[in-house]
Amino acid sequence: MTTFETNRLIMRPFEVSDFEPFAALNRDPMVMEHFLAPLTDDESQRFMNAINREHDARGYGLWALERKDTRDFIGFTGLHHHDGATPPFPCVEVGWRLAVDAWGNGFVTEAGLRALDHGFDAAGLEEIVSFTIPANTRSRAVMDRIGLTHDPTRDFDHPRVPIGHPHRRHVLYRITRDEWDTAR
Ligand SMILES: CC(C)(COP(=O)(O)OP(=O)(O)OC[C@H]1O[C@@H](n2cnc3c(N)ncnc32)[C@H](O)[C@@H]1OP(=O)(O)O)[C@@H](O)C(=O)NCCC(=O)NCCS
């Protein structure tokens, strides 16, 4: 499994000792405001297992973020392959989730750029997308900062969100490998 070092972070596979802070992150209503619901600890355990399985299977996945200065686990950033037949699926998404006390430092921007580099260079992907509900301005700002572009023609109703739920509509941002190469 791949591990990276950026200026301020270690991006690495999840370790058993990450479980408590990871579950706390997924239980936090402020962090999970734009999702259907916070996760139970059982859901967090299944999620953590699935993350490391994806690293083994695909050579990429969501990386645990560890601050180099404090050695604290602060969240995750990385790539996730979505199956599915209705656009934008199948696709590879760049995504993130960070403990509130770590917001506002550019950590996810730093990790997101490294994840894109891995996706286009080592993993050979042609396009990477990111999506969220329109109101998630903090996440949309990360998408902008790392070079993704909103494509309103590809906004979509998320099939895993119930019809009529206010979180069903999603905005889609994307970047191609050519655009990434040109921007570097
Ligand atoms: C989305 C989320 C990861 C964004 O976190 P964030 O800390 O705002 O994002 P970044 O790490 O890129 O940091 C950017 C902020 O740090 C500031 N910053 C400080 N130093 C910086 C640096 N070196 N580089 C970039 N930004 C820096 C920026 O100005 C910006 O601050 P602002 O919000 O006041 O404008 C976070 O809000 C989160 O976890 N939300 C809940 C989960 C979620 O919604 N995930 C996405 C689902 S699609």
Report what the structure shows.
The chain is an alpha+beta fold and 184 residues long. It has a single domain (4-183), classed as Gcn5-related N-acetyltransferase (GNAT) (Aminopeptidase). The longest helix is centred in the N-terminal third of the chain and has 18 residues, at 41-58. It starts with a strand and ends with a helix. β4 (73-82) and β5 form a beta hairpin. The protein has a 5-stranded antiparallel sheet, sandwiched between helices. Strands 6, 7, 8 and 9 form a 4-stranded antiparallel sheet that branches. The chain has 5 helices and 9 strands; from the N terminus they run ββααβββαβαβββα. The structure holds coenzyme A (COA). Residues 31, 34, 95-98, 103-109, 132, 136, 138-139, 142, 145 line the site of coenzyme A. Residues 31, 34, 95-98, 103-109, 132, 136, 138-139, 142, 145 line the site of coenzyme A (COA).
Unique ligands: coenzyme A
Strand order, sheet with most strands: 1-2-3-4-5
Distance between the ends = 25 Å
Question: What is the number of domains?
Answer: 1
Could you say which structural class the secondary elements and strand pairing correspond to?
alpha+beta
CATH class: Alpha Beta
- At CATH's second level, what is the architecture? 3-Layer(aba) Sandwich
Task: Kindly estimate the percentage of residues that lie in beta strands according to DSSP.
Answer: 25-35%
Q: Please give the count of helices.
A: 5
Q: What's the total count of β strands?
A: 9
Helix fraction by DSSP (H/I, runs of at least 4): 25-40%
What is the CATH third-level topology name? Aminopeptidase
Please tell me the overall pLDDT: 97
Radius of gyration (Å):
16 Å
Q: Find the CATH superfamily.
A: Gcn5-related N-acetyltransferase (GNAT)
Most strands sheet: 5 strands, antiparallel
| Outline | globular
Secondary-structure element string: EEHHEEEHEHEEEH
